[in-house]
């Protein structure tokens, strides 16, 4: 049995918490900024319900075996305010966020050997506090090793596709390639259908090529074919499919601009690799967010 505290019950967090609650070997609690009565998640397998304990104050917590952080990346420091009460010598902390800087976001709060970075592919939308929609299958990738294996074991009862890899850097940068291209949709407030416009498709490829160049400098192995694959994938998707930056912009929530595009500009600068298309996306999205 594992005691688990999930911090950040939004689209991803509510979905993961509800699935984990289906395994009665786990004792699942949720640390929420906005409280809710119970979880309700529409999954491809049907609706699942759960009623974990919901905490709204760090002082209410006791140490657990696992902390799972599923806030947006820009809320990482706020998420870490739960650690002093939830984390003891035995606790491991899984960082389930987008981007490539999972460890850097949290290593001022905890020793790196306690942190488990997680790459997640799980299309999900938040509907209301405690309510989410899982729109497709879930894939989680962790670094090879005991921490990764123990994290995947938490999901043994689910149909999540969990894998360990010796090359986690590549897994993160491959996902960032996809996410970086999503900025165009966020700028235009349009779904994946805009990729059918040849000019937009070429802009997406340019953004991804910059991501590949910087990712390679950071040690990732990224094929030249990725930009075309990403455009082809966007063109295969239903035209109205929207990424989470579009969803965030629509409802006035901050977007993960730095996590998905700013990081390419910042790390590019470190390696002397220009990333003007990503810089353009950052400028436009920051301006849109400031409105
Ligand atoms: N959604 C997807 O399809 C998807 C897919 C793959 C990866 N990701 C990544 O997964 C991460 C989470 O994304 P998401 O879409 O699940 O975000 P989200 O729907 O915005 O959920 C974030 C949750 O964190 C909560 N939160 C913020 N600060 C908190 C704090 N200090 N303590 C407790 N809870 C706090 C928010 O509370 P409020 O309810 O008060 O706002 C919200 O419930 C992001 O890095 C994202 O890029 C998302």
Summarize the structure.
With 291 residues, the protein is α/β, with parallel strands linked by helices. It contains twelve helices and twelve strands.
Structure description:
The chain has 291 residues and is α/β, with parallel strands linked by helices. It contains twelve helices and twelve strands. It has helices spanning 11-21, 76-80, 83-86, 102-106, 146-154, 168-181, 183-188, 198-217, 226-236, 244-250, 257-271, 276-290; strands at 2-7, 26-31, 39-43, 46-50, 53-55, 66-69, 92-96, 115-121, 124-128, 131-134, 139-143, 161-165. It has an eight-stranded mixed beta sheet. A four-stranded mixed beta sheet has the order 4-3-10-9, covered by helices on one side. Helix 5 links the parallel strand 11 (139-143) and strand 12 (161-165). Helix 6 runs antiparallel to helix 8 (198-217) and helix 8 packs across helix 9 (226-236). The chain is globular, with a radius of gyration of 19 Å. The model has no long low-confidence stretch (mean pLDDT 97). The structure holds NADP nicotinamide-adenine-dinucleotide phosphate. Residues 7-13, 31-34, 70-73, 75, 78-79, 97-98, 120, 122-124, 126, 129, 244, 256 line the site of NADP nicotinamide-adenine-dinucleotide phosphate.
What's the β-strand tally? 12
Query: What overall form do the CA principal axes indicate?
Result: globular
Can you count the helices? 12
Helix content: 40-55%
Task: Name the strands of the widest sheet in spatial order.
Answer: 5-2-1-6-7-8-11-12
Radius of gyration from the alpha-carbon trace, in angstroms: 19 Å
Average residue pLDDT:
97
Beta-strand residue fraction: 15-25%
Low-confidence stretches: none
* H/E element order: EHEEEEEHHEHEEEEHEHHHHHHH
Helix vs. strand class: alpha/beta
The biggest beta sheet, please?
Answer: 8 strands, mixed
List each distinct ligand once.
Answer: NADP nicotinamide-adenine-dinucleotide phosphate
The first-to-last residue Cα distance is 48 Å
């Amino acid at each position: 049995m594992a005691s688990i505290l999930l911090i950040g019950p939004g689209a991803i967090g509510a979905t993961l918490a509800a699935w984990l609650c289906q395994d009665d070997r786990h004792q699942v609690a949720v640390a929420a900024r906005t409280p809710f009565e119970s979880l309700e998640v529409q999954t491809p397998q049907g609706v699942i319900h759960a009623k974990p304990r919901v905490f709204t104050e760090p002082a209410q917590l006791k140490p657990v075996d696992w902390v799972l952080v599923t806030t947006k990346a820009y809320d990482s420091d706020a998420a870490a305010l739960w650690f002093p009460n939830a984390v003891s010598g035995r606790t491991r902390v899984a960082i389930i966020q987008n981007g490539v800087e999972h460890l850097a976001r949290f290593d001022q709060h905890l020793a790196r050997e306690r942190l488990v970075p997680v790459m997640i592919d799980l299309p999900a939308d938040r509907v209301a506090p405690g309510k989410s929609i899982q729109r497709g299958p879930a894939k989680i990738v962790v670094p090879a090793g005991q921490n990764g294996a123990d994290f995947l074991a938490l999901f043994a009862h689910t149909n999540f596709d969990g894998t360990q890899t010796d090359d986690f850097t590549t897994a993160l940068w491959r996902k960032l390639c996809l996410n970086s291209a999503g900025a165009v949709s966020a700028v235009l407030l349009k779904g994946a259908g805009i990729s059918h416009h040849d000019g937009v498709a070429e802009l997406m490829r340019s953004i991804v090529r910059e991501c590949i160049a910087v990712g390679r400098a950071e040690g990732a192995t990224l094929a030249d074919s990725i930009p075309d694959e990403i455009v082809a994938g966007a063109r295969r998707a239903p035209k109205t499919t929207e990424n989470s930056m579009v969803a965030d912009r629509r409802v006035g929530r901050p977007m993960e601009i730095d996590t998905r595009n700013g990081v390419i500009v910042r790390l590019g600068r470190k390696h002397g690799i220009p990333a003007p298309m990503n810089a353009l996306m950052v400028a436009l999205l920051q301006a849109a967010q400031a409105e």
